[in-house]
């Protein structure tokens, strides 16, 4: 053992003085006591025949800074819960076999799983109640550089190269291979072994594909298989940490993000080049969304893991097609560290976490029509000592930053913004969000129109029939109480009414205003709107 440690030390000294790139030396320095594990990986690929694998190891190590996972008591209890679920699943294996053998997932089939689903919901709710905000007090962030083991990285590299030889994958260049196949993780989950097990389990894909080079065909084969393996049911799964492969493989149920993550493991294990794209916040509804993207010839195709196949995804629409979901920004989750657009090191005030992440790129223009938004300095007010401004969308009943720009002598410019969306420009003062312009509409044709509220002219009345166009639960309900607000640097109350019919009428309201109608008795689904020709226009 002493000899091995001395040998590794000598190897390290030799590498540091002669061989290792500067960025690898930096990563080893950050790794601290875990440096030996990383050096073992480098030593494993010293043969000239392994020169490309050594480059792959360097790629993973140099980009590992910023990669992390969580550890702690809450994670341990979550693992114990998942193990119990796994035991119940095995005890009811005939039910799951029936699901796996079925051609399609249909609602009546889910009913047979109600016992296990109810157990999951009950225990998850209890755990969340016990720990409060998961990830705050009972877990700690752990850097992959300081904790990952050599065996995890070596298996990952070796099996990724096996996958690269499949006919539908072998035409990828090295850069594509590194980003779409090689990563040992997809999000911020604990690094574990998964490739060898999955590759062995899914050799049937190779047999089904025969000599086909069509990556889309392989993707559909795997995704159809996963549709019978994983159930998407997100309402009870509200943990803020990403699950690793072992956890997902036992749980087999979770949020859309979990389903995509589970699918990405299977795809990459079998050489299907995929990556995760996401919009952090919808521009005309609450929350956000993520999906997978297949690198496919000249036309990348998005899909939802274990749900919809490439070319049949539902990014723009939900099952009900009455509401097209708008996106202001779309990002791609990368393993590689990206050069940050802005340097926040001298920023004394709050910077939203979205903009300090180094592992994403902006791909908005690959999906939707975009325009730049120029905010002239003369349009800005309430500007305090700050270097940055942020463009917000209205999401979860509040303004939420989605884009960033540095303030210069001309003002602000926000690049590649989604159109037909209402935005608000803000800065931060002592950590508090401060509006610095009036709301604006980036029109479908790319024109910018400010909602400059006018009191000099008023509507005689406005009549409102909904507080949101999502479904029938958002219609005006007789007997319930409503408040109408308009925006003027904050939400200002225009009055409260008790509905006596299926509509509400307000008088003395401003023109060119942004409104929101709230049911103060019940319900959380509310959206901003403007008025045009007496009709509500939803944003």
Summarize, please.
The protein contains 15 helices and 26 strands. The relative contact order is 0.07.
What can you tell me about this protein's structure?
With 539 residues, the chain is α+β, with helices and mostly antiparallel strands. Helix content is 31%, strand content 24%. The strands form 8 sheets. Strands 11, 12, 14, 15, 16 and 17 form a 6-stranded antiparallel β-sheet that branches. It has a 5-stranded antiparallel β-sheet with strand order 7-6-5-8-9. Strand 3, helix 14 (245-251) and strand 4 form a beta-alpha-beta unit. The termini are far apart. The model is unreliable at 92-112 (pLDDT under 50).
Topology:
Blueprint: H1 2-19, H2 22-31, H3 35-44, H4 51-62, E1 68-71, H5 73-91, H6 93-101, H7 107-111, H8 114-131, E2 140-143, H9 150-164, H10 174-180, H11 195-201, H12 204-209, H13 215-226, E3 231-232, H14 245-251, E4 253-254, H15 256-269, E5 274-279, E6 289-294, E7 301-303, E8 331-333, E9 360-362, E10 370-376, E11 388-395, E12 398-406, E13 411-418, E14 421-429, E15 432-435, E16 440-442, E17 448-450, E18 454-459, E19 462-464, E20 481-487, E21 491-498, E22 504-506, E23 509-511, E24 515-519, E25 528-532, E26 535-538
Parallel strand pairs: 3-4
Antiparallel strand pairs: 1-2, 5-6, 5-8, 6-7, 8-9, 10-13, 11-12, 11-14, 14-15, 14-16, 16-17, 18-23, 19-22, 20-21, 20-24, 24-25, 25-26
């Amino acid at each position: 053992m002493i000899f091995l440690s001395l040998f590794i030390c000598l190897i390290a000294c030799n590498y540091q003085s002669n061989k290792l790139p500067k960025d690898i030396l930096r990563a080893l320095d950050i790794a601290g006591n875990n440096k030996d594990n990383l050096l073992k990986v480098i030593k494993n690929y010293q043969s000239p025949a392994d020169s490309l694998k050594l480059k792959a190891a360097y790629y993973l190590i140099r980009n590992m800074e910023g990669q992390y996972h969580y550890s702690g008591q809450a994670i341990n209890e979550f693992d114990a819960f998942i193990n119990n679920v796994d035991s119940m699943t095995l005890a009811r294996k005939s039910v799951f076999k029936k699901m796996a053998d079925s051609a399609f997932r249909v609602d009546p089939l889910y009913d047979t799983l109600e016992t296990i689903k109810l157990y999951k919901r009950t225990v998850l709710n209890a755990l969340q109640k016990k720990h409060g905000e998961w990830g705050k007090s009972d877990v700690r962030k752990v850097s992959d550089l300081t904790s990952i083991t050599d065996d995890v990285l070596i298996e990952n590299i070796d099996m990724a190269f096996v996958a690269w030889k499949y006919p539908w994958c072998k035409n990828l260049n090295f850069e594509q291979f590194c980003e779409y196949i090689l990563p040992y993780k997809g999000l911020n989950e604990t690094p574990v072994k998964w490739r060898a097990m999955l590759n062995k389990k899914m050799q049937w894909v190779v047999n089904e594909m025969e000599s086909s080079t069509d990556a889309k065909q392989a993707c559909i084969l795997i995704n159809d298989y996963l549709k019978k393996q994983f159930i998407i049911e997100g309402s009870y799964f509200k943990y803020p940490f990403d699950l690793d492969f072992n956890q997902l493989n036992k749980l087999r149920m979770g949020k859309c993000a979990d389903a995509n993550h589970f699918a990405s493991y299977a795809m990459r294990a079998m050489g299907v080049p995929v990556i995760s794209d996401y919009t952090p916040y919808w521009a005309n509804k609450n929350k956000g969304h993520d999906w997978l993207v297949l690198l496919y010839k000249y036309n990348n195709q998005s899909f939802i893991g274990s749900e919809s196949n490439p070319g049949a995804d539902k990014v723009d629409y939900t099952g009900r097609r009455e509401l097209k979901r708008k996106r202001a920004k779309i990002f791609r989750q990368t393993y590689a560290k990206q050069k940050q657009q802005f340097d926040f090191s001298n920023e004394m005030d709050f910077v939203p976490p979205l903009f300090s992440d180094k592992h994403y790129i902006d791909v908005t223009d690959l999906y939707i029509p975009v325009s730049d938004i120029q905010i002239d300095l003369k349009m800005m007010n309430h500007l305090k000592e700050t270097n940055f401004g942020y463009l917000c969308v209205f999401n979860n009943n509040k303004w939420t930053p989605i884009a960033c720009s540095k303030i210069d002598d001309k003002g602000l410019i926000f690049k590649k913004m989604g159109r037909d969306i209402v935005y608000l420009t803000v800065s931060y003062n002592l950590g508090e969000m401060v509006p610095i312009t009036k709301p604006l509409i980036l029109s479908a044709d790319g024109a910018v129109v400010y909602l400059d509220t006018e009191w000099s002219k008023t509507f005689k009345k406005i009549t409102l029939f909904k507080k949101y166009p999502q479904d029938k639960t958002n219609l005006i309900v007789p007997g319930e109480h409503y408040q109408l607000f308009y925006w003027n640097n904050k939400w200002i109350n225009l009055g409260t009414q008790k509905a006596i019919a299926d509509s509400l009428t307000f008088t003395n309201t401003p023109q060119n205003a942004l409104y929101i109608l709230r049911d103060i008795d019940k319900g959380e689904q509310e959206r901003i709107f403007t008025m045009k020709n007496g009709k509500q226009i939803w944003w």
